[in-house]
Amino acid sequence: MRRLPALLLPLALVAACSAPPQKELDMAQGALDAARAAGAEQYAVQEYSAASSTLQQAHDAVSQRDYRLALTRALDAHDRAQDAAKAAADGKARARGEAEAAIAAASAAITQIRTRIAAAEAARMTRKDVAQAVNAADTADGAVQKARAAIKAQDYPGARELVKEIPRQISAELIALDALAAKRTAKPARRGR
After folding, report:
1. Best label site of 48, 67, 148, 184, fewest CB within 10 Å?
2. Model pLDDT for residues 81-120, shown as the tens digit of each residue
């Protein structure tokens, strides 16, 4: 009587593998769809690709009537898809943080150049002298507004891309303003007699 379960277990495994593991394939596909919806194609590319590839291997095993391998691959694909969804959430949060930091750096640079422009105008520099700096600040303001709209649309890489060069560009304008201010305030050298 004790040997009966030991004999039935291999028979149960053979019977379980005599038909395609459709339930497991469907679960794996559902997990893959959920990972895609979570943004895994963009934020967890390797994990998503591995899950997709493993699911394809499961389908290939079904077409070759290797249902045991298909079951193994389907279960593996399900696990990988769940890992991809988790990695996507982490990647999305990281991308949002990077985009917000880039916007903050751009905003700080804009504030700095606006302050410097006001000081230059107070020092009686002409509007023509500061025109390039004003144009750079206005362009940067427009880019920051677009980046904030991209954040609201959850396009974090796009938002970061819009503003990533602003601090460097503003820095160049600040150097140019300083050079112009130094040139205007430099005293002419006295000529010897």
Report:
1. 184
2. 999 999 999 999 999 999 999 999 999 999 999 999 998 8
What's the pLDDT at 181? 80
Domain ranges for the chain, please list them.
19-90, 92-184
pTM of the complete model: 0.71
pLDDT on residue 105: 97
Q: What is the 3-state secondary structure (H, E, C) of the chain?
A: CCHHHHHHHHHHHHHHCCCCCHHHHHHHHHHHHHHHHCCHHHHCHHHHHHHHHHHHHHHHHHHCCCHHHHHHHHHHHHHHHHHHHHHHHHHHHHHHHHHHHHHHHHHHHHHHHHHHHHHHHHCCCCHHHHHHHHHHHHHHHHHHHHHHHHHHCCCHHHHHHHHCCHHHHHHHHHHHHHHHHHHHHCCCCCCCC
What integer best gives the mean pLDDT of the chain?
89
Residue 169 CB-density burial (10 A; 0-12 exposed, 13-18 middle, 19+ buried)? middle
Rounding to the nearest 10 degrees, give the CA dihedral for residues 26, 31, 36, 40.
Answer: -140
- In whole angstroms, give the CA distance from residue 153 to residue 171: 29
**What pLDDT does 9 receive?**
44
